[in-house]
Amino acid sequence: MTETMTDPQPAAAGGPLDPASLEAAVAEALAALAAAADLTDLAAVRAAHVDGRSAALVLARQKLGSLPREDRADAGRRLNDALGAVRDAHATRLAELTAERDARVLVEERVDVTMPTRRRHAGARHPLAVLSERLVDTFVAMGYEVAEGPEVEHDWFNFEALNFYPDHPARSEHDTLFVEPAGTGRVLRTHTSPVQVRALLSRPLPVYVVAPGRTYRNDTVDATHSPVFGQLECLAVDEGITMADLRGTLEVFAAELFGTGLTTRLRPSYFPFTEPSAELDVQCFNCRGESARQPCRVCSDEGWIEAGGCGMVDPNVLRAAGIDATRYSGFAFGMGLERAAMMRHGVREIRDFVDGDVRFSLPFGIEG
Amino acid sequence: MLILMSWLREQVPGLPPARAVADALIRAGFEVEGVEAVGQGLTGVVVGEVLAIEEVAAKKKSVRWCQVRVAAPAAADPAVSDQDAGVRGVICGAFNFAVGDRIAVALPGAVLPGGFEITARKTYGHVSDGMICSASELGIGEDHDGIMVLPPGAPLGAHVAELLDLADDVLDIAITPDRGYALSIRGIAREAATAFGLSYADADGSVDSTDAGGAARAGAGGVADAGAGYPVTVEDTTACDRYVARVITGVDPAAATPLRWARRLSLSGMRPISAAVDVTNVIMLGLGQPLHAFDRAKLSGAIVVRRARAGERLLTLDGVDRTLDPEDLVIADDSGPIALAGVMGGASTEISASTTDIVLEAAHFDPIVVARGARRHRLFSEASRRFERGVDPALPPAAAQAAIRLFTELAGGRAEPGLTDVDHRRAPSAIRFPLSEPTRLGGRLYSDESVRGRLTDVGCLLEDDGADEGAVLVTPPSWRPDLTRPADLVEEVMRLEGYDTIPVTLPRLPAGRGLTPSQRHVRAVARALAYEGLTEVMTLPFVGAGTADLLGLPDNDRRRAAVRIANPIAEDAAYLRTTLLPGLFDAAARNIGRGDPDIALFEIGQVFREPREPARPVPTPSVLTRPSQDEVAALDAALPEQPRRVAGVLAGLREPATVLPGHAVAGSAGGGALAKGRPADWADAVEAAHAAARAVGVELTATADEHAPWHPGRCAALWVDGELVGHAGELHPRVIGAAGLPPRTVAFELGLEELFAAALRRGPVEAPVVSPYPPADRDVALVVEAAIPVTEVTAALREGAGELLESLTLFDVFEGAQIGAGRRSLAFGLRLRAIDRTLTAEEANGIRDAAVAEATRRTGAALRA
C-alpha cells in the first residue's frame, strides 16, 4: 500500500504538522502551562505556546496552506485537536491561578475590624429636651395640643389670672425674678401655668393642651437648685371633666415617665389656681414601695416619688378667662422636668442640666 | 409647723401611734415631712442631788468637781455608810447649778440619744463617774443655760425618762398657705380627731380648764367678764377688726418656766426665754393666736391702732431701727408707734426682767395688711406668718383668757377685771352650696348625707336653702376664712372622704391636630444638629452688663437692648441674653477647661430684647371677667421681644484623629492628614447652619458680611427669600480672646422664627422629573477677580446654562502666578441632561458656551487657557 502511494510525505514526516511534531508541541505547551506559577507566568506561556506569534501551533497553522491539498484535511483536524487541547489546558490553568490569586489577595487585604471606626464626633440632644418631647408625645397621642407662652411674662398671666391676688401668701413661695423697670408687672415666669390662661383665652372650648417650657425662680445653682428649670403643664377644660379624669390622665403620664404597673396617690394640697388641689405621688419605680424592707436611694425610703401638683381648675381662673364654671370644669397638672429626669436617669446634681458638659449629655444620644 | 404628739394627745384622747396619725394627716392634706421620735432609748439617766462642788482650774477653762447623790439613802446598800450611799464624783463644765439642786445624771453604761455611751473616765485629775446632762444631751430641747436643773421634788434615783415622760414624737408638717388654722395644735387636733372619728371639744365654753393644756382649747366667746379695760382706740377697723386687751398685774419677773412647758416650746421649735414671753408663745402654738405683751409701766396713755405717719420710726425687738411707711399698721401710744401690728413689738415697751404689770394684746389683723408690712420691712415672724394666712377672729378673748390663766399659774400674776374688746367683725356670710357639686367634680357619688357630715366635721353650720331642696346654706367656721366658694367646700368633702376613693377614668377628647409645623421644626433642627455631631446644651440665660462690649456689638445693635432683672441672682448676671452665643461660649470654655478641646455645641432657646419703645406700666385687667383683646394686646406689648433662636459654637477638631487608613491600603495607618484629624473652620459653622435650615426644607444663601462678633473677613450672612436669617463663620480674634476660647473658634446663630416662616412658605415639595438618559459632563475653568464671590459665578453659570443644567460642582480653586495677582481660577463641573433624549455633543458644548458667556458678561470671567 505504501508503495502504491505516489506522494512522498516528507512534509508530513519532517514538518510541524506531522503528528509527532504536533504531539511534541502539545506536550511542551501542557508542560509549560502546568509549570506556570502565577498569572504573569501564564500570560508568557500563553504567548509562547498558545496563541503568540512564535507559538509552535500558530506557526504550524501557517504551514497548513502549503500542504498538498489531499493532506490538508487530516493535518487541519490534527492541528485543531492540538490547539483545542492546549486552549482547554490554558483555560483550566487560568481559572486555577486566578482563584489562587484571588484567595491570596483577600488574605492580604485583611484588616483589623476591631479598630476604632469613628471618623466624626457624635452629637446628642439635651436629656431634658428629649424627656419633654417624649412626655409631650404621650399627651399629643391622646389628642392634646401643645401650647406655648413667653418666658418673660406679665404678672397678670403669671399670678393674677391664676388667682394669686397681689398680696397672696403663695406668691412669696415663688421667689420671683422681677424684670425692670418696676411697675411694668413683668416677671420671669415662675411656672408654666400662665400658659393655661393664654390657652383658655386664645382657643375655643374645649381646651386640651400640654405646655412644656422653661421657668425661673430666684435660686442660686447648686446640687439641688437651679434658677432655671423646666416644667410640663397639662390642662383640660371641657364639660363634665372630673377629678377621676385627672387621676386617669395622671396614670397614663406616670406610666410613660416611670414605667407601667406603678400605683399613684393623690394627696390633698393647695395651689391658688386649682380647687380641689392635690400632689401626685407615684409609687417608687425602683423599690416599688418595698423600701420598708430594703433601703431605696431613689425615693429615700419613702416608697413614693413626688411627681407634681394638680387639681381641678379654680373657678376664679375660669372666670378670668370668661368661662362659665357652672357649665365647664377642668383639671390642670404641672410637674418639674429636672426632678423627673433626675429620678428616671439617676442624675445626682441639678447643675448638670445647665453646665453644658458634653460628657453628661452624650450618653443620652439623639432619642434619650 | 412642729406638732408635739403628747400635746396633741391631750386635746384628742385616743389617738393611735404617731406614724398612723402622720399617715392620716397626709391623707387629709397635711404634708408630714418627718416623724421624729424624741427622748427615746434614754436609759441609765437618774435624778441626782448635788452635794458638793469644788472648782478645778484647768488650762483654758475651769470645770467643777461635783459630788452627787444618785440614790435615796434608804435604798442604798446597807454595807456602805449613809454618807457614801450612791454618791459619786462627776466632772462638769457648767456653772448654772448649785449645791442642793437636783439634776439629771447619766451613769456609766447609760446611752444618750445618738447612741452616745457614758463611761467612767479620768479627766482633770479625777475619775468622772458619769455625766451631768443638759436638755439637749437628753434630746429634749435646746440648751439655754447649760445643765438642766430639775424641780426640787424630783425623787433621787428616779429614771429621768419616766419622770419627765420624755418619750414623745414630733411631727414636722408643712402647712399650705390657705390653712392658717393648722399652724396650731388646735387646728391639727381637729383634723386628727376627724380622721379617726374621735371627739374633739373645741368651742362651747370649754376654756375653763386651768390645766395649762387648756391653752390649746378655746372657742368663740368663752370670756366671762367685760367692762372697761385698758383704753384702746382702733382708728382703722378694716385693718384691725378686733382688738382685745387685758391687764395682768403682780407678775413675778424672776419666775422660771417649768420644765414641762420649756420642753414643749423647745420641741416645738421655739426657745424658752422668760415666763412672760413663753406664755404668749405657748398660747400661739396651742391656739394659733399670736399675742403681744407690753410692759404696762412703759406705756404712756391709751393704745391706738392706726396707720403710721410719715417719718415715724420704730425700734423693733430684733434691734433694727425702722423707718415706717404710711401704709404700715402700728400699735401706738402717746409716745408714738410701739409695735408693728401683727409683725413684731417694739423695744420701748418690751417685757424686761423687772416687769410686773403687763398689757396683753390679742387682736385680729387683716392678712394683706400684715403681709405687706412684713414684706416691706423684710420682717417675717411667727405672728406675721399666722396673720398672713388667717387667724380665727373669734379667738382673741378666749386666747387672752387662756394666757391669763397660764400667767397666773407660771408667774403668779393676777388679771384685772376689765376687758377691752374692740370688735368690728363682719357677720359671716353663708355659701349657697348644691349638694351635688362634689359629685359633679369628683367623678364618683357623694351622698347628701356624707356631704353634710363632712362639712359639719370641718366646723361649718348648715341650713336648708328654702328655695332649693338640693342645696344648703353653709356658714364656714370662723377659723376657716379660706372657705368662701362652693369649690372650697368641694375640696373639704373630697379630701375628708379621701382622694383614694376617686375612681380612675379618662376624658373623651376631640381629635387633636398634633404638633404645629413650627413645633415639628424645632425638633427637626435639634435632631439634625445632633446628627451633625453637635451636642445640645441649655445654658443659664443670664449675662452681665459687659457682654455686649465683649461681643464688640455696635452702639445701635438690637442685641444691646437687653432686659434687666430687678432682683438678679448675681449683679454680674443681671441681664437676660439677647443672643445665645455668650452662654455657648461659657459652656465651651467649661468643656475645654475640663479637658475636652474638641467642641461642638448648640442651643435652642428664647432670647430677650426690649422693644424699641420703652416698656410702660399697663393697666391690669380685672380677673372678674374675660379681658378684652385690646387688654391682652396691651399686656403683650409691654413684654420684651422673645424670639427663639438656634446657635452653635465649634472649636478644636471637627473630625477626630483616627488610626484608620484613608483607603484600603494595608500598612498606611498612622500617617496622613486624616490620622491627625481636621480642625473646625469657618465653613463648618456655615455648614451647621445649612444643616439646621435643610432640616426644615430651607436652602440658605450666603453673602459676605461684617457682623460682630464674627471675623470681618470670615463672616457669612445667611439669607432666605431676601430676608436675613443669621450669621456664621469664624469669630473675631478679640472676642475669642475675651471669651477665653481657642484660636479660630467658629460659630453660627439663626433666627428660628424667620427660618420657620420661610419653611411654611415652601408648601409641599414638588417632585423632580428624573431623566433616564445619560448625562453629558463638561468641565470649565474660569479665571475671575478674587474678590468676586463664588455664588455670583455659579449664579451666572446656572442662568446661562438654563434648564438642561442638572448640577453644578465647584471642584477646584487655584490661585498662583500663572493666573495673575488678585485673580483666581474656579473649575466647575457641569452635568447636563435632558428629560427626553440623550444630548448631542454639539448641544452640550453649546450649553457650556452659553453658561461661560453669561459668567463672562456678569463677572468678567475668562476661560482659563
From TrEMBL, chain B:
Tell me what reaction this enzyme catalyses. tRNA(Phe) + L-phenylalanine + ATP = L-phenylalanyl-tRNA(Phe) + AMP + diphosphate + H(+)
Q: Which residues form the B5 domain?
A: 426-504
Which stretches make up the TRNA-binding domain?
A: 39-161
Top EC group: ligase
The cofactor required is: Mg(2+)
Subunit structure and binding partners: Tetramer of two alpha and two beta subunits.
Q: Which HAMAP family match?
A: Phe_tRNA_synth_beta1
- Family assignment from sequence similarity: Belongs to the phenylalanyl-tRNA synthetase beta subunit family. Type 1 subfamily.
What is this protein identified as? Answer: Phenylalanine--tRNA ligase beta subunit
State the organism of origin: Pseudofrankia asymbiotica
Species lineage, top-down? Answer: Bacteria, Bacillati, Actinomycetota, Actinomycetes, Frankiales
Q: Which gene encodes it?
A: pheT
